[in-house]
Amino acid sequence: MNISLSTLALLLTAAVLQAAPESAETQSAQAKKLADGLRYQQGEIHLRGGVATIKLPERFRYLDPADTDTVLTKIWGNPPRGEQTLGMILPAESGPLDADTWAAVMTYSEDGYVKDDEAAKINYDDLLKQMKEGTAESNQLREKRGYPTVELLGWATPPRYDAADHKMYWAKELRFGGENETTLNYDIRMLGRRGVLSLNAIAPTSQLAAIEKATPALLAMVDFQEGHRYADFNPSTDKVATYGLAALVAGGVLAKGGFFKMLIVGLLAAKKFVIIGVIALFAGIKALIAKLRSRQAPGEERA
Hints:
This protein has a domain at 42-66 and 93-274. Helices cover 33% and strands 22% of the residues. It has helices at 5-16, 24-36, 65-75, 124-144, 208-221, 245-256, 266-269, 278-281, 285-294; strands at 44-47, 52-55, 60-63, 87-91, 104-109, 150-162, 167-176, 183-191, 196-204, 222-224. The protein has a 7-stranded antiparallel sheet with strand order 3-4-5-9-8-7-6, with helices on both faces. Strand 8 and strand 9 (196-204) form a beta hairpin. The chain is globular, with a radius of gyration of 20 Å.
């Protein structure tokens, strides 16, 4: 019996909420029904009233904010968000219930123009050390709130900044709750005139090669419209962000609020961050797998 990570996340959420017990087959059927009802889009997509545009190649497809919310909360089992995303981009050949799927969830933070004059001066090894210390300090709060601890293992992909296009991307490797399997947190940031467009992908680390392969296409297909681009900044009228590139990598929204050392807590607590189901999943995945296997019919092959 093959059960995807996304389905397991849904089952775990049901258990946490003490919902009425249902068979694994029923829960999988409910998730499949939701997934079958998703309305995928391709071609040219306009985001946030024309602030940015996606031009999707054939090998990718898009879900709007409503369907993205269905995936994040009802299929992948995340807590409801305080604000809508701008949607998500997925590979055309996979869906949210496939075990090897990944998705880039888009958000926009209108915090002002982020200066990039420090780009060449950032020591990312030192920054990683600070982030690890902040992550370790945050674990007491995470445990108090009932979430698994997080260990920041290092860069899966070191930060890279394209000064010509004002786009930055990097990936962190994380371990939740002492599990053997590690998690990939892949981040893309696109700087604009009034804020930052973010694409966040969280997946098993085994998906790094697939996401790395897709990154050039993601960087090329999403961009700000004329009038909203980085080069359109007007120093006389436009707001400047209170953080720079280093804080953006570490967790810019938290840093500007004086919570620099909280860092990865933002994955769970801050509205500006996307929470993917794997965060909740690792807290009880072993027990769930054992429970699901115990329900199998005699002679049924185990995953």
